[in-house]
Write a structure and sequence with these properties.
This protein has about 325 residues and is mainly α. The protein has eleven helices and no strands. α6 runs antiparallel to α7, α7 runs antiparallel to α8 and α8 packs antiparallel against α9. The radius of gyration is 39 Å and the shape is elongated. The termini are far apart.
């Protein structure tokens, strides 16, 4: 019995020691978990570490074969985004990943390595980059060429810049309205990648024609109408009728593209129609309001006097031959 009691006491002491050891293990486990949580929140959690022994172990070789070439010089890493791969958000993430990889490789032993990112999101980002580059180049070429032509027609730098500014504001306004209508009528929250490109070409070309016709008429009436306000009003009345008719015809032409079920054609048609409506209303108003700033000399009294005398000179010249003829007949 004494031997049994002794063994029971030893067992109880052992269990007490084991309980104390388990408590220490639990405390250590909690400490490790807290450390891992903190490391996960820090920048250290972005790295992945494996001991050299594990990398060279035979059990890890199948993993290397799945993602690397036989010579171990080419590797492929697959990552999945938690957003729609065809959206702008995913394309922006691809650009961010590209910048991060470039920055990491420069400060590592793989600074001479080359990498590329594929997939649908990468294709969307590349397409946006190409489209934006072509669009920007086209915008610069068109605006510079149109600006030079308008300076020769209007004979005023400010007037040319005013017309170009009006066209740009009209373009962005029409594009924004088209995007809003597209989300409600076509159930498309975004414009197609080539809609801004074609819409810009159409609207700017049509708007510049309207501006040139209006300013040419304004210049032709310079000798007949000296008052600037009356002249620009008369020009807008005459040219406006023609332009409104042309806008209605063009609007009907582009409206014929809407039943095509091609999203790009539908959005371009809506943008051009809305832009034409805005141009017909805003361009005469803005150009009429800006005349006294673009042509400041028109309010000068000396200029008005010179224009009046220039208008009267043909009448005086035509009256002299008439007088001579009358005198000759009297004689």
């Amino acid at each position: 019995m004494k031997a049994l009691q002794t063994q029971m006491q030893q067992l109880q002491q052992g269990l007490t020691s084991a309980n104390a050891g388990l408590s220490r293990v639990s405390t250590g486990t909690n400490t490790v978990n807290d450390y891992l949580k903190e490391m996960q929140k820090s920048y250290l959690g972005d790295t992945f570490y494996m001991p050299k022994a594990s990398v060279k172990s035979p059990s890890f070789t199948p993993s290397l074969d799945a993602f690397m070439s036989k010579d171990r010089k080419i590797t492929q890493i697959t990552f999945i985004l938690n957003s729609d791969p065809s959206t702008t958000k995913s394309a922006n993430r691809i650009r961010t990943i590209t910048r991060d990889v470039n920055a990491k490789l420069k400060d590592s032993s793989l600074n001479n390595a080359k990498f590329a990112i594929g997939g649908q999101s990468s294709q969307t980002a590349d397409l946006q980059k190409t489209a934006n580059g072509d669009f920007l180049r086209t915008v610069v070429i068109m605006l510079v060429g149109i600006g030079i032509a308008l300076m020769f027609v209007t004979r005023s730098l400010v007037q040319a810049l005013t017309i170009i500014g009006t066209l740009i504001v009209t373009y962005f306004g029409a594009l924004q309205i088209t995007r809003w209508l597209s989300s409600y009528l076509l159930f498309q929250n975004m414009l197609t990648w080539n809609t801004p490109f074609f819409s810009f070409i159409m609207l700017v070309a049509l708007g510049v024609d309207y501006s040139i016709f209006l300013m040419m008429r304004y210049r032709d009436d310079a000798s007949a109408i000296t008052d600037v306000r009356l002249r620009i009003t008369n020009s807008a009345t005459i040219i406006g009728t023609v332009v409104i008719s042309a806008a209605i015809i063009l609007g009907g032409t582009f409206a014929a593209l809407i039943p095509s079920n091609v999203l790009t054609l539908i959005q371009v048609a809506i943008t051009v129609i809305i832009g034409l409506v805005i141009l017909v209303i805003t361009l005469p108003i803005i150009m009429s309001a800006m005349v006294k700033w673009t042509y400041p000399y028109v309010n000068d009294k000396m200029y008005q006097k010179a224009m009046t005398s220039k208008k009267e000179q043909p009448n005086r010249r035509s009256s002299k031959p008439k007088t001579r003829t009358e005198n000759h007949s009297n004689q």
